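call fold(seq) -> tokens
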Amino acid sequence: MEKIYEIDFAALSGAEKSEFMHRFKETAEREFENHPFEAAAIAQLLIFTRWWNSYRLMVPENPTPQIMDIILEKLWDYQEGKLPRPDFVHFSKCLDAAVLEIVIGDTEKLDEDETYYDFHAEYFGDWDCYYDEFIVDLTYICYGISEHEMNWTNVESILDGDIADIKIPWFEGIENDNGTLAAMEQRNQEIYSTPRFCQVIALLQKDMRTALEDRPIGELRSLYQKEFVFSSEDCAKVTSDWC
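ret:
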């Protein structure tokens, strides 16, 4: 069976593209079960670093909360061996508790440890709800790594929940669905067949392959500071009502 990161997505039919997307999470998880755990962790770190580099440019009037860069720095530091595991696990627990509160207002996890409140106060004073979805995805990565249980739900969410719904010029002309399942499926196939979406999948597959190459983490960290899903010029074309 052809590996998920070797499939020529652009060459698939509309129905085959939909099948690829519908089965993406399960297929990715099954594929990476055949590799060391760290391969999945690095793959997702590469994917989200690339996505963050573009995401942060899309609405410049929304200043980047400091915690976003801190999370990615911690993830890279941990993969490089610069951050001890107990420190990373504690950071992940603090983050999980704080994000639960800022996104849905639930303080249950914050109440478990006073240090969680201290973390919340230190890092979320400048929070902007525009970034809610992204920080939830990053929190999933931290939790998955700290618990040694990686899944691909968060990657699936950026493909179908963020990128496929993004209001940018290269998806203009695709009709909104009328609420029926058939119309929704037709619209999805049209989006999946655009050159830009095919490019997104190709970049994601490239990141998966890169994670399996056993390259030095420091080298990848430096390289991925300049990797994007969309160019800075294209990011500037995103409409301000996307979020």
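Residues 53 and 185 are 30 Å apart (CA to CA).
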